[in-house]
Every structure is written in structure tokens, then in C-alpha cells.
Amino acid sequence: MLLAPLAACGQSASTAMPASTSEYAMPAATVPYSDHLVNGDFETPSLDGTPADYITSRYANWKYVIPTRGVFQDDNHKDTKSLPISGFNAAAFGWKSDTPAQNGFDAGSVEIQRDVKTGEQFAEIISENGLYSIYQDVSAKPGEVMRWTLKHAPRGYAGQIDHDSMQVLVGPAGHETVSPATRVTSNGTGRIGETDTTITTHATADRRFHPWETYTGTYLVPDGVTVVRFTFRALTYGDTSGSKTRSGNLVDDISFGATYPLSYNGNGGTGTPNQTN
Length: 277
Fold this sequence. Notes:
The protein has one helix at residues 90-93; strands at 52-54, 59-66, 71-73, 83-84, 96-97, 110-115, 121-125, 133-139, 144-154, 163-171, 177-178, 181-185, 195-196, 199-202, 213-220, 227-234, 249-264, 273-275. By secondary structure, the protein is mostly beta strands. The longest helix has 4 residues, at 90-93.
């Protein structure tokens, strides 16, 4: 099926990286990478129990998952008191983090929240001491256009600013670039169809939950690249006073899918690009 020209997508696929980037090619992986984002709904592993965190207008259980050790940590279980996760599978969990060790918690922690009313699980990209990220490495094919989507919400907390902001970065590890995001659903505080390099979801400065907004973007895999890193980086974070910033970026239902490959026909390499399913 003939598709519209790539530029009509309004995303980063045409600008993220130059067409010839073989210098970014990663060496052959010693272990296979998944060809899709794993655990984008954050339902693995399942959380239960306490402590409860007053995260929006409702309580949510929270825990840090330390994927390198297969353990949970929370305020009652850290340092030497970490709890092993029965049957933990790092590949099925999927996520990694660049969060450093701090306050008795291990480096590389990924915070998972579970709404006690609905049972829905989601991640919070947050640290009181800096702006950190969660990420995954995914196998890809040069010339492939990859479309990502995610849901984003600000964490409500009295006295803080009226939004949370984050960015999506895509590319070979160490060479990721910001992928512009287009808002496709709105919770009433943003305009559908807006595209920006920063994802910003607004809320009033109270504890009332503000529904998810959905964002999407695209990335064109450059020549010579077979593994790309999807990074989700917080741009607002909590502080000890709770008076300056939101307290966390909530994300859920993160996914990507290949849209179509690019092929070129013509004499001497000067033909018009054709795009096919």
C-alpha cells in the first residue's frame, strides 16, 4: 500500500540522525535483543502489599525493582533488607535505569507503582536528587521507521508546579537524540496535535488525579544500526521541600512498532523513494 511521504508524519524520522551513520553501528550482540519493547505496561512483576504512597487522589503501592539483582526495595526494605522477587526474569522485566545509588537504595532502580483501586501498574520516572531515565535496547533494521507511543501523567501533589515534563530519546546507545512527540489524546489541559521535543502534561497543584495523555513519535533507523536505545528521561523531579516541582513523571503503555521500510528505485541512485508496507 502506498503511504504518504515520510515528511508528512511530522515526527523525528526525517531529522533524528543523518542517513549514513555506520560509525554508530554496535558490535554483534552476545545475547539476542528483543525486536519490541518488553513490559511496556509495567505489569511484570506484580506488586502488592505496603507501603502505600499517596500518589494522586488515591493510594498506590510502590517499590523499586533492581533488575541487576532481582530484588524489590522500599522504605522498609533497602540496604541489606532487600526482598528477592520470586521467579524474577530480567529479560521479561525489560527495563533498566541510570539512577545512581542513594538513600540506601541500589543504583539502577526502576520505580513501579500499583493503584490500589484498579490494580493498574505504571512507572514513575523520578528521583529526589536528579533527572534520571529508564530505558531499553531493542533490535532494529536500517531504513526501518519505528513509531513509539506512551501515556504520561503528572503526579498530583499539593504546592508544586502545575505540570510534569519528560523527553523520549532514541538512537544507538550513547548517541540518542530527542524524538519529537505529538499529543494524540488530551486530559483537557493540552491541545491534540501539538508536537514538541518535550512532553508536558499539566495539572492543578493539588492531589487530584489528572488522566493520562497519549503521545507518539517516529524514528528512522540509520544505516549500519541494528540496536537502538529507547530512553525516557524526566525533566521535572521532586525536592525535599515539595514546593518547587512536581514529584514524578508517570508513564504507562509504552510501545513501538515498525511502520514501513524505505526502498529506493532509480538509475544511479537518483530515483524517488518508494514507501511500502
